[in-house]
Amino acid sequence: xxxxxxxxxxxxxxxxxxxxxxxxxxxxxxxxxxxxxxxxxxxxxxxxxxxxxxxxxxxxxxxxxxxxxxxxxxxxxxxxxxxxxxxxxxxxxxxxxxxxxxxxxxxxxxxxxxxxxxxxxxxxxxxxxxxxxxxxxxxxxxxxxxxxxxxxxxxxxxxxxxxxxxxxxxxxxxxxxxxxxxxxxxxxxxxxxxxxxxxxxxxxxxxxxxxxxxxxxxxxxxxxxxxxxxx
Length: 231
Prior knowledge:
By secondary structure, the chain is of the alpha+beta class. The protein has helices at 35-40, 95-98, 114-122, 128-131, 177-185, and strands at residues 12-14, 21-23, 27-31, 51-55, 60-61, 66-68, 76-78, 80-86, 102-109, 112-113, 137-138, 143-144, 155-160, 163-169, 195-197, 205-206, 212-217, 223-228. Strands 4-3-15-8-9-12 form a 6-stranded mixed beta sheet, covered by helices on one side. Strands 6-18-17-13-14 form a 5-stranded mixed beta sheet, with no helix packed on it. The longest helix has 9 residues, at 114-122.
């Protein structure tokens, strides 16, 4: 048995401080996981359990330095997030065991075609066109969990052209990392290689070609990305 054509290479994120790569399986994203961001999107964070959407694995841009402005949008938004990378999976993972499944953490951007996302939301349609497109998930290199004091607290920020746009603390997460992993495992069989984007703070906004984004989570490798013109 052979492939009809050569399969694409796996998407793999560099591991900081080593020559190892982390092969990506799936990309889960938590929606509205900071109270202030939920409110800026017109929602009440006190009334909702966590919800998720997925991005394609090949939407990840490992160790990104530049991404292209995507087609089909005139309102392209940044969302800085803590990304969790799993080394083990499972189903119905207890909260107390969840962090033991984590390989490492990174800074990521959930880039969003906001106009397409909101149009789909208002029509009760899926968010795929707004969230799951090419180069929609740039990431910094992963820091192994053993080398970081998180994920319960630490500053998370995003600057655009030197201007602070987003600022919060991981302690502000409505659903902390361990709870998020446990909840998600009730609905999916989590696997080694899964990434979880844990939600963005308030302050999301539009970017254009030529903008330079600097995403930081205290103690992790920063993410510096330039927005290039559309292909």
